[in-house]
Design goal:
Layout lengths: L2 E9 L1 H18 L6 E6 L3 H16 L4 E5 L8 H4 L18 E9 L3 H13 L4 E9 L11 E5 L6 E6 L8 E8 L1
Parallel strand pairs: 2-3, 2-4, 4-5, 5-6
Antiparallel strand pairs: 1-8, 7-8
Helix pairs in contact: 1-2
Protein name: Bifunctional protein PyrR
Pfam families: Pribosyltran
Keywords: Transcription, Transcription regulation
């Protein structure tokens, strides 16, 4: 039976904060401001990261951004393997996304399948002008041609490793941990 063993701490709370501050500046710079931008977090840990990015951008620009929550459960290509009756949460997009630039936020970019599902969910809601991807950690191993526009930390991993992101208020901790699967 395989077990997970903590290998190393990749980012502590301060490193996460610094990465989100840098990503916030990069979003503003790339988009020449924040006009017509909506930040959308992918459930679960993408949501608090999206809220933090929006708060940081508001501190820098002095203007509040709309923040949405995207549930991709029904758009996953592994839905049948998740559960007989998967739990679907509500998607909450506070404003019309048509013609807007969406900053899609997730904790870890791995195979690209979560992002593909999120793109499908967004397109069912409306037609954004552009979708940009912001992730806290990019661990490689892509199965689909997807890349992040904004990355907190690139972490080359093996297939026997897992990147665990702990973010409050969901978790009682604030760190990114590399774990190893031990057979």
């Amino acid at each position: 039976m395989a077990t997970l063993v903590d290998k190393t701490i990749l980012m502590d709370a301060q490193a996460i904060k610094r990465a989100l501050t840098r990503i916030s500046h990069e979003i503003i710079e790339k988009n020449k401001g924040i006009e017509n931008i909506i930040i959308v977090g992918i459930r679960t840990r993408g949501v608090p990261l999206a809220e933090r990015l929006a708060a940081e951008i508001e501190k820098i620009e002095g203007k509040k951004l709309s923040v949405g929550i995207l549930d991709i459960t029904l758009y996953r290509d592994d839905l049948s393997t998740l559960s007989y009756q998967p739990i679907v949460h509500q998607t909450q997009i506070p404003t019309d996304i048509n013609g807007k630039t969406i900053i899609l936020v997730d904790d870890v970019l791995y195979t690209g399948r979560t992002v593909r599902a999120a793109l499908g969910a967004l397109i069912d809601i409306g037609r954004p002008k552009a979708v940009q991807l912001a992730v806290l950690v990019d661990r490689g191993h892509r199965e689909l041609p997807i890349r992040a526009d904004y990355v907190g930390k690139n972490v080359p991993t093996s297939s026997k490793e897992i990147v665990g992101v702990l973010i409050s208020p969901i978790d009682n901790d604030e760190q990114v941990v590399l774990k190893e699967i031990v057979e």
